[in-house]
Design goal:
By secondary structure, this protein is an alpha/beta fold. The protein contains 13 helices and 11 strands. Bound molecules: 4'-deoxy-4'-aminopyridoxal-5'-phosphate.
Length: 348
């Protein structure tokens, strides 16, 4: 069914639709001035004394050009985690609405649902980690407001085929969130190029992975200006600090270097996967479209503990749905992967 702006407005919580957001000093006056006495800031300690641009205009302008979207289609958050939480707060009435997602997937969709007292309906992936499209649509009802799809998926590493995601965007009567945290490592194209086709689509991306900037906490949500307007209404007035905005602008100038990092990671990944698969106790290395691989071994708990004893930390996913005896291993430098492989050869 074709969604319209009216259907999206209808999914917004009534209190959020009615909300008159806080209007900060920097919202009310944004022209040129030389004497700033409006925000109770200190006149000392330039430039940190001033509140940052609440809507991060310069950064959004640059990002918009780079991603081929309008600045009004961008929300910037304290990591994409902030965008996930705000989606619940915009669209889900606590105790009434529900969110649908897949299992296994990124853990914050569930945690944010629980924080917001929103029921969370998990649909287990098929055994080959493909999307059970019909089961997902059947799990939804009239109170389903959000559907989270992580592609490439964490922790399985696979990207879902565009045709499956498209069926879900068209078939789900609510907001479909495609989390593209790992898209730069994928052979699949981003959904950003098709944002305008689907009013109910929200795409999440982050500076934390390919952009090498997990420490600064900067994530992005891309959507219809109508949806971004609600993000802006609900967010903290000055959610992104001025040093972070300045840093991100400088980072965008380094796009070529980031592309080289990604190419390097992909080369290390393919060599690592080959060597890993040759180890006797490795049962399966799952294909990856991300900067990590999921690997099934004979005794994941034991191996995990032995690696930790050597100062090597991977992620033990063996208690997660469909991931018995699985470790999730991030792709580091070639040297780091060699250290890990040598340790595994000693123990396997
Ligand atoms: N989405 C996925 C799929 C992730 O794996 C992660 C981080 N592990 C995030 C979002 C959160 O990213 P950020 O650092 O932007 O909050």
């Amino acid at each position: 069914m074709r969604k319209t702006c009216d259907s999206i407005e209808a999914w917004v919580r009534p209190n959020i639709r009615r909300l008159k957001p806080y209007s900060s000093a920097r919202n009310e006056f944004s022209g040129v001035a030389s004497v700033w006495l409006d925000a109770n800031e200190s006149p000392f300690n330039t430039p940190y004394n001033r509140y940052p641009d609440p809507l991060q205009s310069a950064l959004k302008q640059r990002l918009a050009g780079q991603r081929g979207v309008a600045p009004e289609q961008i929300f910037l958050g304290v990591g994409s985690d902030e965008a996930i939480d705000l989606l619940y707060r915009i669209f889900c009435q606590p105790g009434k609405h529900n969110a649908v997602s897949i299992a296994p997937t990124y853990g914050m969709y569930r945690v944010c649902a629980e924080i917001n007292d929103v029921a969370y309906r998990e649909v287990t992936l098929n055994a080959d980690f493909s999307l059970p499209v019909e089961a997902i649509l059947q799990a939804a009802d009239a109170d389903s407001r959000l559907l989270f799809l992580c592609s490439p998926n964490n922790p399985t590493g696979n990207a879902f085929p565009a045709a499956d995601i498209e069926r879900l965007i068209n078939g789900f009567d609510g907001i479909v969130v495609v989390d593209e945290a790992y898209i730069d490592f994928s052979s699949q194209p981003s959904w950003l190029g098709r944002l305008c086709e689907f009013p109910n689509l929200v795409v999440l991306q982050t500076f934390s992975k390919a952009w090498g900037s997990a420490g600064v906490r900067l994530g992005m949500a891309f959507a219809l200006p109508l949806i971004i307007g609600y993000f802006n209404k609900v967010k903290y007035p000055y959610n992104i600090g001025e040093p972070v905005q300045r840093y991100a602008l400088a980072m965008l100038d380094r796009a070529d270097e980031v592309r080289r990092w990604v190419a390097d990671t992909l080369a290390v990944r393919s060599r690592f996967v080959e060597q890993l698969a040759a180890l006797p106790s490795v049962r399966q290395v799952y294909p990856s479209d991300a900067n990590f691989v999921l690997v099934r071994v004979d005794e994941a708990e034991l191996l995990y503990d032995r690696l930790v004893a050597e100062g090597i930390v991977v992620r033990n996913r063996s208690t997660v749905t469909l991931c018995g005896n699985c470790l999730r291993i991030t792709i580091g430098t070639a040297d780091e992967m060699n250290v890990l492989l040598e340790a595994m050869r000693r123990y396997l």
